[in-house]
Amino acid sequence: MNEGQLRAEGERCGVRFERRYDARPEELWSALTEPERLTRWLANVAELELRVGGRFLLVWHEDGQQTDGTVLDLEPGRVLELAWTYPDEPDSAVRFELRADGDGTVLVLDHRGLPPRSIAGYGAGWHSHLDSLDAHLGGGEADWTARFQELGPAYEEQAAAVSG
């Protein structure tokens, strides 16, 4: 499924994506963990200590906002889970899991503990970033902002159904 699935989690919400990429697991892992590659599809990496308890700091291209946190779980080549701190929001956690699938790789992204008011934005945002990851793996670039704006209404509709 390419579209993210939003869900209620008590007082919070979550979003999950499952996507197959035409890339080997080690290539996808590299795109998730090497700062120069992360910058091409996600955000500028100011800090990334790839170890459990290690810190990370991302600076978003669009608005200069920062996200930071720590590495919660790390199984090189397979699992990366991050405690996620974003301004004016409660802490949340995002988990990336990779599994080989023939000549490609399935990526599962699950972001949990999100505030209901922000869930549509996270859905459209992660969807747009994952599209950018696909373009990066193919040697190209994607227009994140245009894609985010295009996806926004569908995620707003899904969020209304989830948070009712």
Any descriptors?
164 residues, alpha+beta, Alpha-D-Glucose-1,6-Bisphosphate, Chain A, domain 4, eight-stranded antiparallel β-sheet, 8 strands
Notes on the protein architecture:
The protein is built from 4 helices and 8 strands, in the order ββααββββββαα. It has 164 residues and is of the alpha+beta class. It has a single domain, classed as START domain (Alpha-D-Glucose-1,6-Bisphosphate, Chain A, domain 4, 2-Layer Sandwich). α1 crosses α2 and α3 runs antiparallel to α4.
Topology:
Elements: E1 5-9, E2 12-21, H1 25-33, H2 35-41, E3 44-48, E4 55-59, E5 66-75, E6 79-84, E7 92-101, E8 104-114, H3 119-137, H4 144-163
Antiparallel strand pairs: 1-2, 2-8, 3-4, 4-5, 5-6, 6-7, 7-8
Computed CA radius of gyration, to the nearest angstrom: 15 Å
What is the number of domains? 1
Helix vs. strand class: alpha+beta
Give the CATH superfamily. Answer: START domain
The spatial strand order of the largest sheet comes to 1-2-8-7-6-5-4-3
Bin the helical content: 25-40%
Averaged pLDDT:
94
Low-pLDDT stretches: none
Order of helical and strand elements? EEHHEEEEEEHH
Q: How far apart, in Å, are the first and last alpha carbons?
A: 23 Å
Major β-sheet, in short?
8 strands, antiparallel
Tell me how many strands there are: 8
Strand content: 35-45%
The shape, in one word, is globular
